[in-house]
Amino acid sequence: MPEIISSVNLEMPSSATGPEDQRISYTDLLIVGAGPAGLTLAAWASRFGLKARIIDDKATQVYHGRADGLHPRTVEILDSFGIATSITDKAQPIREICSWNPSEKDESRIERSQRIRDPEQDLSRYPQMSLKQGCIEGAFLDLLQREGVLQVERNVVTKSISYDDIHEKERSEHAIKLNISHSDETQLSNGARPIHEQIRTKYLVGADGAHSWVRGKCGFEIDKNRSQKHFGVFDIVPLTNFPDVRLSCVIHSAHHGSVMTLPREGRLVRCYVQLAETGDGDESFDTKKISFEDILDKAQKIFSPFQLQSAACEWWSVYTVDHQITKTTSLHNRVFLVGDAVHAHTPTMGAGMNVSIQDSFNLGWKLGMVIKGLAKPDLLDTYQSERHEVATTLLDLDRQMSQFFVDGPCEDSVNYDEFRKKFTPFLSGIGVTYGPSIIRAKDDHAEQTNGDSEPDTKGQRCKFRSKQNLARNVRTGQRLSSHSVVNQADASPRHVHEFMNATGSWSIMLFAGDLRDATQRKRIDKLAAHFSSKKSIVGRYCRPKVSEAVVEIITIHSAPRVEIELLDLPEVLHPCHEKLGYDYWKVFTSESSDGKSDVEDSYQRYGVDPGHGCMIVCRPDQHVSLICEIEDVDMVDDCFDQILTENSR
Asked: Where in the numbering of this chain does the Phenol hydroxylase-like C-terminal dimerisation domain appear (predicted)?
């Protein structure tokens, strides 16, 4: 009988068997790959307390090089896990972008043609910033260490996989079998044999990059471009008289190609240097023969007449990229792909790590809810419908950006601000809008303006309509923007996203209006009476512990704070835990103690009438699911009923 192990504390089936030298273990979720995408999934698994494992074939995390650009939405995601500060304290903010082109007087020399205030900083409380991938991985690893639910298992080699008839298997079955071997370097150097193990899991996620083993072994089909683009990349401490070295720059020369620069933490600067473009399978450009000196030499020619030397090179590489995308992101909703395993593209937009983290942020809470028995398995369909569309848009925009990079000086490079405008909403991550589905109501705005009803997302049926007129500046399907509010209990200013952390909870954002008004107060009391009932969504789906609620009500009212007493409000708006007392972080207001209003501006920013109010239902990933009237409590109940299970009660 083989040794049976369970690092995830599952009860072992008595019939488990295997080769004599192979261990067998069971888990609910197995993540292959411990880069940013895999670690984001692991963070969700930790938050849900899942029986999960994350494995990687490398001996250590990334310390130098690789991805280095962070766009606003990604930093918001890091903030939701409580790790943004460790990133922003080290990162270099990007506030200005410069475009450089050949001089009209002497095309052998470049000159600045435009300065652009980076528009991304207007879309979020976080600007675009740059920091090496190793710091982002380190922040996630520290989080996993603190929470102690799972840790990255390294030096793990994936051998084979089987998943017979997973579309017919019950989701409670560990139907996916992954054979691995693992051993640390000390054991291997001492001549010890690697440990062979078969991991049996309910769900498998391939977060293992552009050359994904999971993707290949599970037969995911790929749409692939025929051309390949080659870029030289380096991180150096520059010795230069180039005046914009601490700004993000796009530099086009007349005859030597293009360079994109990005200022980094400390004195570092990242340069992406255009090398060549070849056809698929064309071996005329041998990347193995390219040295750092070759890349630097080409960059020096592009920078002319300015000097560029390297005081120190921290990292360099040659990227060969072809545009590719998988035709699907999942196999029977049991095997999933995230990040570069789904989409491969050039580094010219600085989007790769960002979209990868955002993929996992979308998938992680859905897997968590289904595995914990809180949500119906149909929820997992929305990962394909939401994120594959994002991947398609990513590749379309990247083709345009990389072609702009390759084309050299042109009208777009001279008028770079106009060219970049069409990329900003997507690139920032703020403009990503998910289509109608079981977790996203149809937007009535299109029907009101042009008579056209917003179509259902393919494969998804949506029964509900958002009342866009109640929150004119909020878009159903987008992440809810974060604005300043004031805590009712302690008068502290807070940002809305601060109480929408990555806990797995849905948020009913109750814009309660002016609670001094008797008519408005009756509306709120009626809503509270409904949600206090055991028949309501809150009564049925909130778990016993306040910190583990599946659905939370967050109240933002527009009355002066000093004229409202927290304990005079219905208890369902500030729940009382039998051991911990009242929850003082659920009610916020438009007026601070000195009468100055931050929330009044927030009501205006959200486009909500401060005298009327509304409800905005937000998913665990902060995206807006539904906008409705305060009276639409039955609609809210029905929305959750089609998602959540009896086990949530």
From this structure: 432-646
Q: Is there a domain that residue 640 lies in?
A: yes
| Lowest-confidence region among 176-190, 215-229, 523-537 | 176-190
In the block, which residue shows the tokens 């390297």? 310
In which domain, by residue range, is 619 found? Answer: 442-648
Residue 69 CA: distances (Å) to CA of 65, 72, 127, 248, 370: 11, 10, 11, 11, 32
Residue 82 lies in a domain: no
Task: Assess if residue 567 is contained within a domain.
Answer: yes
Tokens found for residue 355 = 């979209």
Report CA Rg, the chain.
26
Dump pLDDT digits (tens) for 19-58. 556 899 999 999 999 999 999 999 999 999 999 999 999 9
- The beta strands (E) that lie in 332-483 are given as 335-337, 343-344, 442-443, 465-466
Residues 73, 200, 264, 479: which is the catalytic one? 264
347 is catalytic: yes
Query: Which one of the listed residues 272, 383, 541, 606 is annotated catalytic?
Result: 272
Token representation of residue 251: 């530099």
Q: Where are the beta strands (DSSP E) in 514-586?
A: 551-557, 576-577, 581-582
Of the listed 68, 208, 381, 398, which one is catalytic? 68
42 with 61: CB under 8 angstroms?
no
Pairing of strands 335-337, 195-206: parallel
| CATH code of 558's domain | 3.40.30.20
Phi (first) and psi of residue 566, to 5 degrees:
-55, -45
The answer to whether the beta carbons of residues 591 and 561 sit under 8 Å apart is yes
Domain count of the fold of the chain: 1
H/E run at residue 424: helix 424-428
Is 272 annotated in the active site?
yes
Q: Does residue 407 sit within a domain?
A: no
All residues at 6 or more sequence positions from 161 whose CB lies less than 8 Å from its CB, including other chains: 176, 177, 178, 179, 204, 214, 217, 218
Query: Residue 547's pLDDT band (boundaries 50, 70, 90)?
Result: very low
Tell me which amino acid residue 453 is.
S
